[in-house]
Amino acid sequence: MGVPKCNNQLSSLDEFEVSTKDLRRIAYTIIAPGLIVVGIFGNVLNLLVLSKPFFNNCTRIYLRALAIADVSILLFDISMVLRLSDSIGHSFYTAVFFAYIEMPLLTTFIAFSVYIITCLTIDRYISVCSPTTFNSFHTCKMAKGAILVCMGIAVLFASPLYLLKTTCWTEICQLSFMDNVTVTDTTYWRTYIIVSELMMRMGPAFVVAILNILIIKKLKALKKLRHKYSPSLKYNKDDGLANYTNKNKKYKDEQQLITLLQMISLLFLITITPASFLSIWYTFRDDNSLGFERFRTAANLLEMANFALNFFAYFLCSREFRKALANVFQKVINYKCYRENFCKRNNQQIAIIIENF
């Protein structure tokens, strides 16, 4: 079977394209590039800092995988931004990439990132609510196995998106791409979209929200019990300054953990949920509309922000991370100073040799 002709919708979409031109320009040429740059920079810093053993090995395995997944998503977001802003021309390679490669791989890494966050939440839930079984569950072997399972499930649910689009010929004999309506207009495809969104976004978002609520409730209950049965946190000369400082530090760390979990739950729900409804709306819509385009733009930017800001959300309240980050920058500065001094000494030696020569 040959490559079909693209649907000729230009005349009917002229008014629509004009009405959404400013929206696309602001969203995909100003806001989105900023999110991508910040996100890639933050996740690269994340990987550098996670090379230091300030977290236990299992947590570092999860967080490294999360950073790699988020960087991959943001790199694929570059192609999405170029496509949605009409900043890339037609060619054989771009048509094949946008038709068969972009969406399956982008969705795979999105699902992979979401599943890793879910695994991290389950890990924290067991550590707080079931500490007796935590040591047997919290192992490097278990973490690596969970990551492999997450990737396998992500690939499984994202693979059918290979059928979402197909290549086609334009009126001026250029190879382009369009929706594969012979597949996407079927009941089977619509069922797949609903099930995949439940499994890749809505379901994990619900699990993360519920588990974080349970963790926060448990931590607050433990805090009340400690206040009731433990000695007061007020300074006592008999306890000594060191003991008082340790108690204060422990309570501050617990409060920071509660705040961080609340922020993660809120950020995850706000940024991931709209993208789920976007996929379903995209599948069931009859035609493009200004309302759909506005919602599509907002959902894309929110989801992009989630993967760009994961770095800041997870480590904003971590004192250990800030220390490790400062250590990384200090090493960079020291190396730069060493290089400058080394080059300066070499230049001085070369100048002396030239004079003597």
From TrEMBL:
<keyword id="KW-0675">Receptor</keyword>
<keyword id="KW-1133">Transmembrane helix</keyword>
<feature type="transmembrane region" description="Helical">
    <location>
        <begin position="257"/>
        <end position="278"/>
    </location>
</feature>
<keyword id="KW-0807">Transducer</keyword>
<comment type="similarity">
    <text>Belongs to the G-protein coupled receptor 1 family.</text>
</comment>
<dbReference type="Pfam" id="PF00001">
    <property type="entry name" value="7tm_1"/>
</dbReference>
<keyword id="KW-0472">Membrane</keyword>
<feature type="transmembrane region" description="Helical">
    <location>
        <begin position="143"/>
        <end position="163"/>
    </location>
</feature>
<dbReference type="InterPro" id="IPR000276">
    <property type="entry name" value="GPCR_Rhodpsn"/>
</dbReference>
<feature type="transmembrane region" description="Helical">
    <location>
        <begin position="298"/>
        <end position="317"/>
    </location>
</feature>
<feature type="transmembrane region" description="Helical">
    <location>
        <begin position="198"/>
        <end position="216"/>
    </location>
</feature>
<dbReference type="InterPro" id="IPR053093">
    <property type="entry name" value="GPCR-like"/>
</dbReference>
<feature type="domain" description="G-protein coupled receptors family 1 profile">
    <location>
        <begin position="42"/>
        <end position="314"/>
    </location>
</feature>
<protein>
    <recommendedName>
        <fullName>G-protein coupled receptors family 1 profile domain-containing protein</fullName>
    </recommendedName>
</protein>
<dbReference type="GO" id="GO:0004930">
    <property type="term" value="F:G protein-coupled receptor activity"/>
</dbReference>
<dbReference type="InterPro" id="IPR017452">
    <property type="entry name" value="GPCR_Rhodpsn_7TM"/>
</dbReference>
<feature type="transmembrane region" description="Helical">
    <location>
        <begin position="26"/>
        <end position="49"/>
    </location>
</feature>
<feature type="transmembrane region" description="Helical">
    <location>
        <begin position="61"/>
        <end position="85"/>
    </location>
</feature>
<keyword id="KW-0297">G-protein coupled receptor</keyword>
<dbReference type="GO" id="GO:0016020">
    <property type="term" value="C:membrane"/>
</dbReference>
<feature type="transmembrane region" description="Helical">
    <location>
        <begin position="97"/>
        <end position="122"/>
    </location>
</feature>
<keyword id="KW-0812">Transmembrane</keyword>
